[in-house]
Amino acid sequence: MILLDGLATSQQIKQEIAVEVQHLKAQGHRPPHLAAVLVGENGASLTYVNAKVKACEEVGFQSTLVRRDGDISESDLLELVKELNSNPDIDGYIIQLPLPTHINEHNVLLAIDPIKDVDGFHPENVGRMALGLPCYLPATPAGIIELLKRYNVPTVGKHCVVIGRSHIVGLPMSILLQRNSYPGNCTVTITHSKTTNLNELCRQADIIVAALGKPEFLKADMVKEGAVVIDVGITRMADPSKKSGFRLAGDVDFAGVSGKCSFITPVPGGVGPMTIVSLLMNTLEARKRQI
Prior knowledge:
291 residues, alpha/beta, 2 domains
């Protein structure tokens, strides 16, 4: 079994990005600038955003954290999006999800300029991804693809089962893995809460991407020998033995499943760090488009 170490891989990619940033600066260009909008006081969202800001500092990016109260109106948030779209000093930005329930996330994501949509959520970028055209890929699927590539994980002709159909992970993951390129050329099956023969499908899979948000859902009896398992989930679970009072669990029962795998991602330290570094890669690309 080979552990797909997202933490070590992301550090390597950060070093590569930092070299490119130095090259840009040596040519007289300013470094890439990523902004993040955080609405409200969601603890998990604040943790994620702070990690992205820290990553920007590590590679030499400029970063701006824009905070707004949780009671901001949708119209005021849309006005902020308009300001970010027109700001020439910001190459890309993200609206940290989830947003408060009184705000329509769809309206906000649609208002983002696709050129600055480094999260890859705008319909224009999603459509271009589906057509195999240049675009910003959603950060988590892009991170998984990069991890598979750097570990030379075989994908051609493999049967991949994706558990979960969200527009953030499941759907784009299925599109990327079936592309006529490497990593890709998989036969992909998307499963979800209405799938009746999930266990059977998983046991047929050469590659499983678990992205459903249910801790330790994928058990050993659902995985065949030699399978590749990508665990996208991360959930805080109470654990009095820990100083923090909780532990982080993925969607995969790692202890039971890992012994059957050829490759597997850990939680934490697998997909998470690759998501952040993919955001940096998109922001670097956004900057280079402006030069």
